[in-house]
UniProtKB/TrEMBL annotation:
Gene3D superfamilies: Penicillin V Acylase, Chain A. The lineage of its organism: Eukaryota, Metazoa, Chordata, Craniata, Vertebrata. It comes from Perca flavescens (American yellow perch). This is Secernin-3. GO terms for biological process: proteolysis. Residues 322-345 are annotated as: Disordered. GO terms for molecular function: cysteine-type exopeptidase activity; dipeptidase activity. Belongs to the peptidase C69 family. Secernin subfamily.
């Protein structure tokens, strides 16, 4: 299985406009997989409580933060998301010298969710993820299928003031702080000689494996990557294209810029085929802590044919029903061993309607064009409304409690007219 998945981007001042951090990610996954967008409020837990992740159980903490997640519907973790403190995280598959065929442990997607639930800054998220990685390891199939699809992970993590790139190989890892400009990642190791945090035994391990002589300058990407690059060629070209697209708007990067990048098909960033872009996210985080962040999610495949809908953290947010997949509890085939003996229907309400409209768009070009125009118009209206909030703050929080759900219903109304 070749690494055909995911691109994550972050842009910080001075590459952005209006003192904002812009985060974006396409989640590229098997084309038949449903991605849901879900919200979990902050919670307190008693001593000794456990949390059941995708494959294993770990100890719970006393308090978890409110999170909004875009996640493959079959697993516990998330591909990307944000928390109430405006920390955003996206992960990527990476393959290197270390085998990824480990026993079931924490998935990279589990670590994304845990990082968001437990960290109120990007740097703390790095600490949370690496501590659990060292304790439990990473492993298990990353696809809802009997054929095992495994990988190690890199993470791009941002908050109101900076971003961190965290790259892992087994239980070893390196992290780099990004304090300005822009950064993108695409399924390949990108940390070289600048490491602001690292696993204390990561260099010794590389030397013991004969990957590093202990004398030349240590370069994480060179030491831990495959000796042959054929396997990461596709991600390498996407990485270069993504970097070029960011460079083109350097100094003026906005949410719209990021959405355009995620919709770009020529670069391969908006992926089609057996692996495709099944969900997308763009977040706008003002550096001013008095102003709210706005998080846009599609909850549907192909951002070119989807609406980025806004979510803002306020009190009293209800369950995001229209983008939540059916739950099968302990009867879920993922929970039973041997796993993945069958695949239940995981389509949520928006997914079903979007799938139908995508078929119409494909078959009837003129109708498809009108539908797409109506969708973009809705998106533009929502972004104009959010600009007011991003610039001046929230006056009536209760009006935003159902912001995402009402935007989804408006999107479905557009589909209904078609």
């Amino acid at each position: 299985m070749y690494p055909y998945s995911c691109d994550t981007f972050v842009a910080l001042p001075p590459s952005t406009e209006r003192q904002r951090i812009i985060f974006g990610k396409n989640s590229d996954r098997p084309c038949d997989e449903v991605q849901e967008v879900v919200y979990f409020p902050a919670r307190n837990y008693g001593a000794g409580e456990k949390v059941e992740c995708t494959y294993i159980e770990i100890e719970q903490v006393a308090h978890t933060y409110a999170v909004v997640l875009s996640k493959p519907a079959w697993l516990w973790g998330a591909e990307m998301g944000a928390n109430e403190h405006q920390v955003c995280i996206g992960n990527e598959a990476v393959w290197g010298r270390e085998s990824a065929d480990d026993d079931e442990a924490l998935l990279g997607m589990d670590l994304v969710r845990i990082g968001l639930e437990r960290a109120d800054t990007a740097e703390k998220a790095v600490d949370v993820i690496t501590e659990l990685l060292e304790k439990y390891g990473q492993g298990g199939s990353c696809m809802e299928d009997e054929c095992s699809f495994t990988y190690h992970n890199s993470f791009l993590i941002s908050d109101r003031k900076e971003a961190w790139l965290l790259e892992t190989s087994g239980k070893h890892w390196a992290a780099e702080r990004v304090e300005g400009g822009y950064r993108n990642i695409s399924n390949q190791y990108g940390i070289t000689t600048k490491m602001d945090k690292e696993h204390p035994k990561m260099r010794d391990y590389a030397r013991s494996q004969g990957w590093w002589d202990g004398e030349t300058q240590f370069n994480f990407a060179t030491v831990y990557s495959f000796t042959t690059t054929a396997r990461i060629e596709a991600s390498g070209s996407r990485y270069c294209e993504g970097k070029k697209l960011l460079e083109k708007s350097n100094g003026h990067i906005t949410a719209e810029t990021m959405m355009d990048i995620l919709r770009d098909k020529d670069s391969g960033i908006n992926m089609e085929g057996m692996f495709m872009t099944t969900g997308s996210m763009v977040s706008v985080i003002p550096t001013d802590p008095a102003l709210p962040g706005v998080h846009y999610f599609t909850a549907t495949p192909d951002p070119e044919r989807s609406v980025f809908k806004p979510f803002v953290f306020v009190k009293n947010i209800n369950e995001l029903k229209e983008t939540s997949s059916p739950s099968y509890g302990p009867d879920d085939p993922v929970k039973k061993k041997p796993r993945f003996q069958s695949k239940p229907d995981r389509k949520h309400e928006l997914f079903v309607k979007h799938e139908l409209v995508a078929a119409i768009t494909e078959s009837y070009k003129d109708r498809g064009k009108k539908i797409t125009e109506s969708m973009r118009q809705l998106e533009k209206e929502k972004m104009t409304q959010m600009e007011e909030i991003l610039s001046h703050g929230i006056e009536e929080p209760d009006f935003l409690a159902n912001l995402f759900s009402s935007s989804v219903r408006e999107e479905m109304a557009v589909y209904g007219k078609s």
